[in-house]
Amino acid sequence: MRATLDAAGTQAAPRSEMRPQTAPLLMRFGLALGLILPTIAFAEGISIDNAYVRAVPPGQPNSAAFMTLTNASGQDRALVAAESDAAEVVELHTHQMEDGMMQMRQIEQIDLPAGKVVTLAPGGLHVMLIGLTEALSPGDQVALTLNFDDGASQTLSLPVKRIDPSAMPAHKHH
Ligand SMILES: [Cu+2]
């Protein structure tokens, strides 16, 4: 693509001196990324690790996605929305104490301060999947698109994992 476009983005005649290694190199680069980083994405300095979706029993209407986001961009950023075909509605949620009980609450965005690591985990911040359109069994893959405040978006393929209920901090205090 780039080889046939000039700096202004207009069509230019293919040049015979085009380096023959360009395409194979790009292909190899893409293959390496696909093999080594299947669930890790770098969107403008944001890296995502340990992303997964909670497996739920058949008939369970909702689930959630969890991950670790690292902002190495040097600028404060935020996750402002998420999308997935696996649920009718996808929301950003946190947990907070209300009347002595931990309650889920929708939030407008998940702040990603510069240089900080933000963890989405059971009992805390999460991407809520409401109205599942398919069963989520361990081993399945779920596509999830994250939208950031600078307009960047990143689509991930998340593995579905079972969460040990005893590991869920139902009454976690920070
Ligand atoms: Cu929730």
What does this structure look like?
It is built from 1 helix and 11 strands. The protein is mainly beta. Strands 1, 2, 3, 4, 5, 6, 7, 8, 9, 10 and 11 form an 11-stranded mixed beta sheet that branches. It is globular, with a radius of gyration of 20 Å. The termini are far apart. Bound molecules: copper (II) ion. Copper (II) ion binds at residues 64, 93, 104, 126, 128.
Q: What is this structure, in a nutshell?
A:
With 174 residues, this protein is mainly β. Helices cover 9% and strands 44% of the residues.
Q: Which consecutive residue ranges, at least 5 long each, have pLDDT under 50?
A: 1-23, 30-41
What is the architecture at the second tier of CATH? Answer: Sandwich
Please state the average pLDDT score: 80
- Biggest pleated-sheet summary: 11 strands, mixed
Oligomer: single chain
**Distance between the terminal alpha carbons, to the nearest Å?**
51 Å
User: What is the fold named in CATH at topology level?
Assistant: Immunoglobulin-like
- Outline: globular
Number of domains: 1
Helix content: under 10%
Number of helices: 1
Number of strands: 11
Annotation keywords:
Immunoglobulin-like; binds copper (II) ion; 174 residues; disordered N terminus; eleven-stranded mixed beta sheet; mainly beta; 1 helix
